[in-house]
Amino acid sequence: MIRELGRKGYRFVNGILEHVKLSPNIAKTVKGKLWLGTKLVQLGGSEKIFRKMFNLRQGDKLLGSAHCYLSTTAGPIAGLLFVSTHVVAFCSDRPIILSSPQGELGRLFYKVMVPVKKVERVHQRNNISNPSKKYIQVVTVDDFDFWFMGFLNYEKALKFLQKGVSKD
């Protein structure tokens, strides 16, 4: 029992370290996590954030959520991964700043939403040169893939994501 608790503690600490290491600026990451924690408390939990950010139909039930990063061509973006009975969704922790062709600045949350029926498969991946770095690849039916990484609890996230997209 003590050995199992030790393993769980090691996985948790390793998850936190992996999560923080992905950020180019640790101070910004901590600030973002504090902001997100405040929002979670203010809005009443991840279920309410999920409903507010994605405006889904009645009957859609949230199966799980996880703090992680979404890999993009601009680099990893910190946020929350949501899996519900109808969608796999991601929303950034903080708004990203975009500029218009006219030079105006705007702030938007980076969001991704894929209907569960459009998810072909979920793969567990490890970095070949560093096996402790774990990723989750979500592949859609049109062969587009999303890469999630830096989970605080990788095994838990993988489990609810696989359960949510299973075709059973």
UniProtKB/TrEMBL annotation:
Residues 48-126 form the GRAM domain. Coiled coil: none annotated. Pfam families: GRAM. Belongs to the GEM family. This is GRAM domain-containing protein. It comes from Citrullus colocynthis (colocynth).
